[in-house]
Amino acid sequence: MAAKKSTKRDRARCWWCGEDPLYVKYHDEEWGVPLRDDQRLFEMLILEGFQAGLSWITILRKRDNFRKAFKNFDARKIARFKAADVQRLMKDAGIIRNRLKIEAAITNAQAFLEVQREFGTFSRYIWQFTEHKTLRSPQREAKNLPARTAESDRMSKDLKARGFKFVGSTICYAHMQATGMVDDHVRGCFKYKGQK
Q: Residue 93: how many CB atoms within 10 A of its CB?
């Protein structure tokens, strides 16, 4: 599938965002835009973990609830969550109530803080997997977008070695797409840029 025309100013967009205004806004303003802010990078990593097995639009529709439930993704606060917090989150219908994913978010907050201590910033650490630049393939079409790459394989392996959970290579690649480490806007999309 190629880029698809959308009703918003008749711009052609990547096929996956469809017509949903929330998805269109996410596509236009966030997806593929280089993100260097540690707290936002952490938020996206946690949300990608919660998305596993679900659609991204489900997560987008609950993102404000996630921000409230997870203290605006302040890793220092989440790292101190206890059993009572897990129980509170398991009762919160505004988020994805999956105990393993909730517990993983707490574990990941602790691991995230360790990475910050070691590298100075999480951004410096995570962007090393693309040599601190946005990767673009020369022929981006829907039919040949990968679900994982050698870079996401390396990222996944390193994150797991550091204690992170729900960070398989496919989740890592989705994180890379979402945070602009890779730019997978397809040919014909108004956000498409050629290879650098």
A: 7
**pLDDT tens string 97-123:** 999 999 999 999 999 999 999 999 999
pTM value is: 0.91
- Interval 160-178: pLDDT, tens: 999 999 999 999 999 999 9
Which DSSP state fits 138? S
Cβ-based burial of 99 (10 A; exposed 0-12, middle 13-18, buried ≥19): exposed
Structure tokens at 78: 């989440």
Q: pLDDT of 132-142, one tens digit each?
A: 999 987 767 77
Domains of the chain: 19-178 (1.10.340.30)
**For residue 3, which of 195, 190, 196 has the smallest C-alpha distance?**
190
Query: Token pair for residue 180?
Result: 């602009």
* Residue 97 CB coordination number (10 Å): 12
Contact indicator for 36, 25 with CB cutoff of 8 Å: no
Positions marked catalytic: 26, 48, 56
**Residues in a beta bridge with 4:** 13
